[in-house]
Design goal:
By secondary structure, the protein is of the alpha/beta class. The protein has a single domain, classed as HUPs (Rossmann fold), CATH 3.40.50. It has a five-stranded parallel β-sheet, sandwiched between helices. The chain is 42% helix and 20% strand.
Length: 151
Amino acid sequence: MIAAMFGTMVVGTDGSETALQAVREAADLAIELGAVVHLVSAYEPVANQRLQEERESIPPDLEWLINPREDVRAALEDAAEQLRARDLTVETHPREGDPADAILDVAEEQQAQLIVVGNKGMSGAKRFLLGSVPNKISHHAPCSVLIIRTT
């Protein structure tokens, strides 16, 4: 019954070690449940002027590497490869904007039954800050939320 309840999960990551710890624990759960995993990471928009300046400083054949998504895509693909190596079905979702909003949007789009995030930033007084990603998700999620203790 639990496997049917949590067949699709959204997992947030920023590529940090604590986030990857949450991804690994989410993977363990996904294996037990046979769940599909949707990895989400957000990036801040970068001014076009800055992107142009960075492109001008590298060889033309590498200009495609300079865009605001590349670091996020690399972090997502690294995490996805680890999960695929464990025979999980994984989709990645790089999103521009606020990390909590990105995770919530993907959860709604994919009709997820579970969101998994790490607790980084939720210790002590920090857990009361409105900007805390796990805090915002826990209050606005369209489904169940699992906050992994990573700190």
